[in-house]
Amino acid sequence: MGVVKSKLLKQISNSFPNFPKKDLTKTINIILTEIKRALRRGDSVELRGFGRISVKTQKASIRRNPRTMEKVAVPEKKVIRWKQGKDLLKKINNEE
């Protein structure tokens, strides 16, 4: 299971017990809102050492439904792209 916002808030509040929980909640909400706004504008978001999030437009195409094998037209849409940072990749692979 991934990390949900409530668990993230709990971990941050344990790391910084001097900050009120409502301030930490507000800070997390502001950060996530700004990331969403940047992606909606088409900008990319880079968190140094962690990764880069960007939006790419996927062209319209004709694909097949694997269950029925009928052709389905898929309209153009925007998708989120993720590229991990070098530091994160090293930590995941225990290279540090």
- What value does the average pLDDT take? 92
Question: What is the H/E string?
Answer: HHEEEEEH
Report the structural category: alpha+beta
Query: For the terminal residues, how far apart are their CA atoms?
Result: 25 Å
What share of the residues lie within helices?
40-55%
The biggest beta sheet is recorded as: 3 strands, antiparallel
Low-confidence region ranges = none
What portion of residues belong to β-strands? Answer: 25-35%
Radius of gyration: 19 Å
Structure write-up:
The chain has 96 residues and is an alpha+beta fold. It contains 3 helices and 5 strands, in the order H-H-E-E-E-E-E-H. The protein has a 3-stranded antiparallel sheet. The protein has a two-stranded antiparallel sheet with strand order 3-4. The radius of gyration is 19 Å and the shape is elongated.
Short descriptors:
5 strands; two-stranded antiparallel sheet; 3-stranded antiparallel β-sheet; alpha+beta; 28% strand
Write the layout of secondary structure elements.
Elements: H1 5-15, H2 21-41, E1 45-47, E2 51-58, E3 61-64, E4 71-74, E5 77-84, H3 86-92
Antiparallel strand pairs: 1-2, 2-5, 3-4
